[in-house]
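Ops channel
N.P.: pipeline sanity check, posting one input/output pair.
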């Protein structure tokens, strides 16, 4: 149901105890920004949509807004700074909902938009209370910069401050990628393997790959601000010499890699099958995530027609990861 064909987008907050999942604008993997984007007051916009479609519509809304979007039990929510006219992209949201009504006329009656002025009470930092240390896979331990935790000798510790980029490990798509990387490293020692993290966001997957022992790692993102966040996280984890971070697109990259991980939305992934083939070494491996179960077959066919062979398939909740080998 991708009604807004924007750039990269990623998943949202999935384990918040208050049943609120949060997305960062311009990218989807996007947990809520750690930066304030309002000062004194703001306009809260609540969009009421049917629950089964709320998360994907929120992803598209985050892409339109370039700011935080919160998935709520009634739909999704975002904030507009009344002092910054550029933050109000209501016309884009109206177009998104109009497209939804056209595709699903039987659900049109349930759509509604409500606005309310609310006072500044440090809302932009409140999400941090829900980002706690967590384990992923066999050895990964992920903690935010503001939380301490016990670390065992065998743990691979990732320290993350997502800032305005996606990637804390709480979303299913990120966990699927980390688990896939860990299994890949166990089956094929990565010491001589290169890796591209396409849509690096906070840099969490590139950091995980470095801790697993991959030799040459490049994190690429079209969002320059996300790359700055990734650089900060790279430094926090002491991996400046292991990871190269670049802002740009695949077209700006001339290298080929043994392994490519792309955790972005199905829409952009569909357009990247041919370009990705030009950046993977023969017999190289490709992991695609950010794919809803209902989109799985379409994405799989797009890559198989370009010469990719499906080798692995994993799911977590409503999301899946597809692992391919490049036979070119």
């Amino acid at each position: 149901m991708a009604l807004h064909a924007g750039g990269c987008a990623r998943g949202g907050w999935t384990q918040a105890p208050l049943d609120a999942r949060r997305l960062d604008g311009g990218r989807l993997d996007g947990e809520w920004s750690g930066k304030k984007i309002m000062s004194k007051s703001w306009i809260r916009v609540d969009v009421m949509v049917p629950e089964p479609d709320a998360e994907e519509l929120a992803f598209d809304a985050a892409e339109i807004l370039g700011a935080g979007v919160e998935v709520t039990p009634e739909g999704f929510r975002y904030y507009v700074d009344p002092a910054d006219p550029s933050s109000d992209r209501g016309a884009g949201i109206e177009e998104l909902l109009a497209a939804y009504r056209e595709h699903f006329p039987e659900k049109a009656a349930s759509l509604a938009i409500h606005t309310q002025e609310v006072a500044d009470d440090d809302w932009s930092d409140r999400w941090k209370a829900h980002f706690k240390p967590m384990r992923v896979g066999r050895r990964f331990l992920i903690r935010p910069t503001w939380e301490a935790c016990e670390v065992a000798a065998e743990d691979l510790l990732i320290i993350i401050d997502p800032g305005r980029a996606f990637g804390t490990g709480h979303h299913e798509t990120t966990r699927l990628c980390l688990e896939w990387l860990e299994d890949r490293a166990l089956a094929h020692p990565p010491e001589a393997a290169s890796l591209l993290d396409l849509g690096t966001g906070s840099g969490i997957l590139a950091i995980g790959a470095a801790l697993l022992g991959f030799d040459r790692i490049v994190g690429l993102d079209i969002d320059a601000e996300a790359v700055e966040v990734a650089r900060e996280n790279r430094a926090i984890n002491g991996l400046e010499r292991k990871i190269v971070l670049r802002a740009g697109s695949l077209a700006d990259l001339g290298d080929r890699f043994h392994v490519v991980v792309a955790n972005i939305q199905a829409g952009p992934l569909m357009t990247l099958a041919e370009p990705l083939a030009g950046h993977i070494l023969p017999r190289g491996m490709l992991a695609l995530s950010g794919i809803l179960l209902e989109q799985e077959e379409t994405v799989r066919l797009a890559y198989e027609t370009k010469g990719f062979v499906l080798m692995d398939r994993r799911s977590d909740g409503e999301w899946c990861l597809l692992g391919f080998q490049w036979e070119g």
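N.P.: looks fine end to end. Confidence is low (pLDDT under 50) at residues 1-39.
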